Amino acid sequence: MSRAEVTAGADGTDGADGTSPATTHATTAHATTAHAAKAHATTPHAAKAHATTAHADRAHPTEPRPVRLAWTLGLFRSELSLTFRRWRTLALLAVLAAVPVLVGIAVKIETSDGGSVGGGGPDGGGGPAFIAQVTNNGLFLVFTALAATLPFFLPMAIGVVAGDAIAGEASAGTLRYLLVAPAGRTRLLLAKYAAALTFCLVATLVVAASALAVGALLFPLGEVTTISGTRISFSDGLLRALLIALVVAASLIGVSALGLFVSTMTSSGIAAMATTVGLLITVQIVDQIPQLHAIHPYLFSHYWLSFADLMRDPVYWDDLVKNLGLQALYAGVFGSAAWARFGAKDIAS
Amino acid sequence: MPSTTGGTRGSVIETSGLTKRYGKHLAVDGLDLSVPGGSVFGFLGPNGSGKTTTIRMLMGLIEPTSGRAKVLGRPMPFETRRVLPHVGALIEGPALYGFLSGRDNLLRYDSADPTADPRTRGARADAALDRVGLTAAAGKKAKAYSLGMKQRLGLAAALLQPRELLVLDEPTNGLDPQGMREIRSLVRELASDGTTVFLSSHLLDEIEQVCTHAAVMAQGRLITQGPVAELAAGARGRLSVTTPDTGDAARVLKELGVADLVVTEDRVTGEPPGTDLADVNAALVEAGVRVRGFGVERASLEDAFVALTGEGFDVAG
């Protein structure tokens, strides 16, 4: 079905091929209605006319209404507003925003006696990356918070949003109405994926913004010392923080695609979310088992912490590029799988 | 819609050999359906007879195992994008986003249609809400709606655009008698505008009240289809004699060739004979049968259904 849809979608404007019975009907009315459609689009009364004059429209049975790109993007906008109006989404964002607050307060308390984090080892001992530098520069809380949330909190939030994308609509029954609207299966899937990626970006920026605010409140700000030991200005540091946030958001592309694929496999939103989060945990565990090192480079989480390399001077790009390549690979593989699965699926819910 | 193209080309829905198989179970078995344009078409059958599966195939939601389906003259599911903007559908009850208001639900569904103009979206949603009488509840969250209100909102979603075809699957399910009457009058109103309405139901009287045409399904197969008047006429009415002397009446009627006699407390019914009914009445009176009532009861669609299937109108096992 998906194949047919793609070809049919390619030419939304052609209506008078004259081969099907209904179009013969339509062609006679074509000349006059083309006119009417134009008037429709330009008059300020369009809304009223459209809603009330059912009769006028009936003169041309299957006259294709034009599909406009801006109109087709309406589904993405609708998807976005739907995602961010859900109480669940807001709760996830609130939890993510709370993480830097907790980390910041913990560091502040632990160092209030003048000591350093983690018992004063050379690298600051345990804890997420950069945590030792936080007391010197609040900006480092951004890096610490991202390092703390990337392994679990962020991907879990994305797993919930992406896993629920199709399966949630299916279990609510709204999927069938979207498809008869007709949203188009490919278009709906793309809108869902775009909304999930937007959520990745927003979630990451929420963590970063919260961390920056907390860092500025509790700790001094100033010049930034990179991992390589060089010093860069605060504004340069801010720029790197933004870049890191973007890379962290991009690190979640793979999980999003995986979640979307799982979402097309079931009609239960809860099952899809649980499966996605379960897969996430499994992958993280497998990534920790040395005996399985052969497959480590193919796990979507393997290069996640490479974002720290953006704090080197000069930036060490190798792992960053590997990470982005791996995310693109996951997006390609699981995106196609989701498309193939969803395109041919019988919607019986 | 008068068919200017003539013959079967006026069909709004046309299927041939449409079949859906789930494992060994044939949900729909070789369906040849033809829905004339402009009709109010009743799609009748007990629960589980394959109505909803058929509707899902017509709407491109599930793919037929074999056979073809055309809606508005175009093959489904291959041309969903061209066909479905002209079709409004209510399938197996409404489905709504509970955390959105009724109006926002409509906006959501409208934005899913790539041919829907976003500039007129709000106005069309308001018009649709007004049409189903939900204007007052438009701002309320959909989860607070009663079943009847949800059903209306589902109908409103089907009416967001002027449609050529409305597919309404059990639209009065869960409604009180008042709500049912309102839906029926809405269906009649839409039909009088020229919209073809494809209405599935397991309620015979509902079909009889609003439909011009009907098809009867049982166990995945189409049993019959045609104008409602013809279907009902297919089953002959029954001669009914109300009398305290049921024994004598039955004897006389039998002598006159009335078959399939059924005697109840004070009534004798049977298939009317070929002879003039006035003679039958005279014969009864002559034999001293005291007749309180005499006449032929008009056949209902239910009689037609029972005659066709030889069974009651119950849920298929």
Automatic annotation (TrEMBL), chain B:
InterPro entries: AAA+_ATPase, ABC_transporter-like_ATP-bd, ABC_transporter-like_CS, P-loop_NTPase. The keyword Nucleus does not apply. The keyword ATP-binding applies. GO terms for molecular function: ATP binding; ATP hydrolysis activity. Keywords: ATP-binding, Nucleotide-binding, Transport. Residues 13-244 form the ABC transporter domain. Belongs to the ABC transporter superfamily. This is Multidrug ABC transporter ATP-binding protein. It comes from Streptomyces alboflavus.
